[in-house]
Predict the 3D structure of the following.
Amino acid sequence: MRTPIIAGNWKMNKTPKEARELIDALKPLVKAAKATVVVCVPAVDIAEAAKAVRGSNIKVGAQNVHFKASGAYTGELSADMIKAAGASYVIIGHSERRQYFGETDETVNQRVLAAVENGLIPIICVGENKAQREANYTDALVEYQTLIALTGLTPAQVKKVVIAYEPVWAIGTGLTATDEQANETIGVIRKAIARKYGKGVANAVRIQYGGSMKPANVKGLMAQPEIDGGLIGGASLKAEDFAQIVNYEA
């Protein structure tokens, strides 16, 4: 059985002080969670968040990582810097990074390799936009994005990564794929991993749904056999809402 993973993507929100306040409010609400709980915070919040989660079951993640260990890359952060600040997870290839900052499938792969080599667990985002779904490219696209992202990893390393299927047309729009649509596409991703790395590896990989999961729809989505959790945007900025998602079985 795969342990579900619920990760909050705070995006560009919260100062370090606000991050501590939110985490302090969240800790008692999720202390009995059966799922892995992660908060992926802005870079300036990582160190403060790492202090705030001490003694709790909450893990800290970053929202991006550079693929080089050091060098003339103004404004970037290396994997060892992120790890030293206190993060253990990192989101890679989020659709907003792809759309606004030129992220490509190839650079996603480079970042994944750097993260894994430095002991960070990548949350790798894949997904289609509205035009691609309407053109029936969803399956081919998510297979390609997934396998490119994992290139160069060993089967043992692949087992530890997290994949987040985020239909781009459902992010920040209030739209959500139906439970069955999300389950079907996540199943496509798992089958692609199975073909490349074997069923044992595919069955171990946790694959989240990342398209506007919220308290109102979490139970239906999490009841699907292929869905192992959620990458949560706006709802992760409110302790009560995020806790309701984490505690979806309660």
